[in-house]
Amino acid sequence: MSTDPATHELLHDILKQVSRSFYLTLNVLPAGVRDQMGLSYLFARAADTIADTDLIDRGQRLKYLNQFRAQFQTHKIDWKAIQEIQAVLIPHQKDSAESILLQRLEDCLKLYETYSAGDRERIQWLMEVLPNGMEMDLTRFPGESAGQLTALSTLDELDQYTYYVAGCVGEFWTRMVCAHSPEMARWDVTKMSTMGVRFGKGLQLTNIVKDIARDLHNGRCYVPEPLLQEAGLRPADLLDEDNLPKFRPVLNRLIQLAMAHLDEGWRYTLAIPRSEIRQRLACMWPILLAGETLKRVLVAPDLLNPAVNVKAPRGTVYRVMAITILTCANEYVATAYWNRLKGILSEP
C-alpha cells in the first residue's frame, strides 16, 4: 500500500467527516492495517447508504448497489457509473455524513487504486460478499412499514443473513491482519477465519435483538417464522408490546445463539498473541459491549417499543475500555468479566 502521507491524511480526513466515533475507534488498530480497515468501512457504509436511500424505489437502489459493487470486480473504475450514483443519490440524503461520503466516493476509490494488489484483492472479496446482505434486505423484505411486515423463513436463512452482513467481516479482518502482522502470520488462516465468522455473527445477532422493534416497524422481522410459531406467535403479533412475555422464550433462544457465537469470538480474541495489545482491545471491546447489551435486552420491559433504544450506557462503555486498557488487555481480568456476563445470560 502507498505510504504517501498525503494519501493517509486524505483518508483520515474523510473518516473524520463521515464518522467521528469510528475514526476514534480505528486508532486502536495496529498501524499496519488501520488505513485498509478505514477505507473498507467507508466502502461498506457507502453500499449501505445506497441500499437504505428510501426516497428512491427499490429497483433503483438495487441497480445502484450492484453498479457500485461492480467497481470491485474489475481492474478499472467506471467513473461515469460512480458519478451517476452520486447524481441520483446525493440529493436524497437526510444525513449530512451520508451525503459527504457519497460526495467523496471518487476520492475513496482513487485511494483504493493506490493499495497493493493483495489489499485490493481482500477488499474486493469483502465488497463481493457484504452487499449480499443489503441485497437480501431489498429483495427479501418488500415493504417499508409495519403494514407490509415480512419475516425470515428459517434459522438457516437468518444464519446466512448474519454471515453476509457481519460474519464475512470477521473473515476479512482475519485475512487482513494475517497479511500485515508478523505475529499473526503464524495463525492457521482458515481455522481462525471460521472463528472470525462466528464472532461477526454474534455481533449481528446482538444488533438484531436490540433493534427488533424498529426493524418490525420498517417491515422487517429477522426472527424466523418457525421460532415464532413454536411460541404461538405471528410476526405481526410482535407489533403489540403486550406480547413481550410470550415472545421471551424465542428472545432467550436468540440470545443464547448470539452468546455461543460471541464465546467463539472470545476464543478468537485470546488466540491473538499477548504482544498484539491493540488487536486484542479491538476484539475485546465489541464482545464485552455486546454482552452488556444482551444483558439489558434480556430484561428490557419495553423491548418491543420502537421508541426505546436498548444499549449499554456510556458509563459502561468507559468502564469496559478502562478495565481492558489499564490491564493491557490481560486475558485473566477480561475473561473474568466475560464469564460474569455469560453467567448472567446463561439459559435458565
Indicate the radius of gyration in whole angstroms. Answer: 20 Å
- What can be said about the biggest beta sheet? 2 strands, parallel
- CATH topology term of the largest domain: Farnesyl Diphosphate Synthase
Give the integer mean of the pLDDT values: 95
The residue fraction in helices comes out at over 70%
Q: List low-pLDDT spans.
A: none
- Tell me the CATH architecture of the largest domain: Orthogonal Bundle
Please give the CATH class of the largest domain.
Mainly Alpha
Span of the ends, CA to CA = 51 Å
Question: What is the N-to-C order of secondary-structure elements (H for helix, E for strand)?
Answer: HHHHHHHHHEHHHEHHHHH
Order the strands across the largest sheet as they lie in space.
Answer: 1-2
Secondary structure: number of strands: 2
Q: How many structural domains can be distinguished in the coordinates?
A: 2
What's the name of the CATH homologous superfamily of the largest domain?
Farnesyl Diphosphate Synthase
Q: Structural class, from helix and strand content?
A: mainly alpha
Indicate the proportion of strand residues: under 5%
InterPro entries: Isoprenoid_synthase_dom_sf, Squ/phyt_synthse, Trans_IPPS_euk-type, Trans_IPPS_HH
Protein name: Farnesyl-diphosphate farnesyltransferase
Pfam families: SQS_PSY
Q: What do you see in this structure?
A:
The radius of gyration is 20 Å and the shape is globular. It is mainly alpha-helical and 348 residues long. The protein has a two-stranded parallel sheet. Helices cover 70% and strands 1% of the residues. 38% of the residues are buried. The chain has helices at residues 5-18, 20-26, 31-52, 58-69, 79-89, 96-103, 105-113, 117-129, 131-140, 155-180, 189-210, 212-217, 225-230, 244-270, 277-299, 314-326, 331-345; strands spanning 150-151, 220-221.
